[in-house]
Structures are given as structure tokens and as C-alpha cells.
Write a structure and sequence with these properties.
With 215 residues, the chain is of the alpha/beta class. The chain has helices at residues 4-26, 42-49, 101-107, 151-156, 196-201, and strands spanning 28-34, 37-41, 57-60, 66-75, 81-92, 96-98, 113-114, 123-128, 133-143, 146-149, 164-169, 175-184, 191-195, 209-213.
């Protein structure tokens, strides 16, 4: 027979474990693994694909963006090429190329790790399309790790736009990502974006769960 105190302690332990599991589940978000890709300005789209060319929508993404059916080739100082790099639409004010650190070894470029849109002083390379080529003086970056949140999710968890959080990865290669930027917008899904190098290092695939840890 168990005495009353022992039973009460066991109940408290079970309740505590259930609460911990619930809190953990509530802080989990999905991962989206971002392949190398290109955002084009109107001018560069005209040069690469022809005057007035419009991108063809293959799949709609979050934030009013879409994956197109169009591809370009990247050529760096090594004169080695990375072909079939997908173009994302719609057009932007300035062309931006997002690659991984592994890609830099092929192209022989040294892009900084930056948030999307922060392109001043970033790396250069050549874009080749079916109708022409563009020498990009700047615009090549390695995208920083970042999280997209809806306003509802952010408010519920006390997180604000442009906060930085840590992210814990469980599984066969446990990892913690530090200082992950948070972006909040009403047309976002709740999702963390990492590049292929980060995904491979932590054995993560699209749709895997990770956990936000407040700083």
C-alpha cells in the first residue's frame, strides 16, 4: 500500500510532466529548408529572359511570393557554373541571390550572412539566362536563419517582429541555433527557414519540428 504523501507526489510529478510536454508542443514550429534561389529586378528579368517577360507561377509561397518555372545559371570567379537555380517571384527592386556556404566553394565567392534585402556591399557574380547575361555587382548573400510568424502566434508567445530567439533541435543530431531572427507579418505562415547546409548539419527535412527558446 502507498501512503497518501507518496500518491500526492506521484500525481504532482505526472501533472508537471504533462505541463512540460504541453509547453514544449506549443513552442514547436515547422522547418522549411530553402534551396539556392534568385529574386530578380524588372530590369534584370528583361535582360535574362527578354523585354516584358513575365514569370510563370509554379507554386505559391508565403508572403505573396511564388516559385516560378524559370531558372538561371550562376557563374562565379571560378568560371564554374551552378545550373538550374530557380527564380522566385514577383520581381523586386533589386536582384538578390541566396546560396549556401557549400555553393561558395564551387563559385569562389564570399557572400556575407545577411537578412533578406540587406545587400549593400554583398558579393557579386554573373547570371545567365536564355536571352542574356547580367553582371551582378552586389546582391549575393547567404540568408540568415530566420523564423516567419503570424501576428497571432507572436502575440500568444510574447514575441515581437525583429526579436532574436534560440531554436532547439531534437533528434539524431541534437542542435541549438542561436540568435535566429523573427519576422512577423499577417501573410506569413509559422515556419523557420534554414538553408541546406544548416538542414544537413542537424539532419532536418522540410516539415520537421523545432522548438523556439525565448532568450
Amino acid at each position: 500500500m502507498y501512503d497518501t504523501n507518496t500518491i500526492q507526489e506521484a500525481i504532482k510529478l505526472v501533472i508537471s510532466e504533462l505541463k512540460t510536454k504541453e509547453e514544449k508542443a506549443n513552442s514547436e514550429i515547422k522547418v522549411g529548408v530553402s534551396q539556392r534561389h534568385v529574386h530578380l529586378s524588372r530590369e534584370d528579368l528583361d535582360t535574362l529572359f527578354g523585354k516584358g517577360y513575365e514569370l510563370t507561377v509554379k507554386k505559391y509561397l508565403m508572403g505573396r511570393e511564388f516559385a516560378s518555372d524559370e531558372f538561371v545559371t550562376l557563374v562565379g570567379p571560378s568560371l564554374k557554373a551552378i545550373e538550374k537555380v530557380r527564380v522566385l517571384g514577383p520581381v523586386r527592386k533589386q536582384t538578390q541571390v541566396e546560396i549556401s556556404r557549400t555553393d561558395t566553394f564551387v563559385l569562389k565567392v564570399s557572400p556575407p550572412v545577411r537578412p533578406s534585402g540587406e545587400l549593400k556591399g554583398s558579393a557579386s557574380l554573373v547570371l545567365v539566362g536564355p536571352k542574356g547575361t547580367v553582371y551582378l555587382k552586389e546582391g549575393v548573400i547567404i540568408a540568415n536563419r530566420h523564423i516567419h510568424l503570424t501576428p497571432e502566434y507572436a502575440q500568444k508567445h510574447g514575441i515581437k517582429d525583429n526579436d532574436y530567439v534560440d531554436v532547439e533541435v531534437e533528434g539524431i543530431k541534437p542542435t541549438r541555433f542561436y540568435d535566429v531572427q523573427v519576422r512577423v507579418r499577417d501573410d506569413f505562415n509559422v515556419e523557420m527557414h534554414i538553408d541546406t547546409d544548416d538542414a544537413n548539419s542537424a539532419a532536418l527535412k522540410n516539415g520537421a519540428n523545432v522548438r523556439i527558446i525565448r532568450k
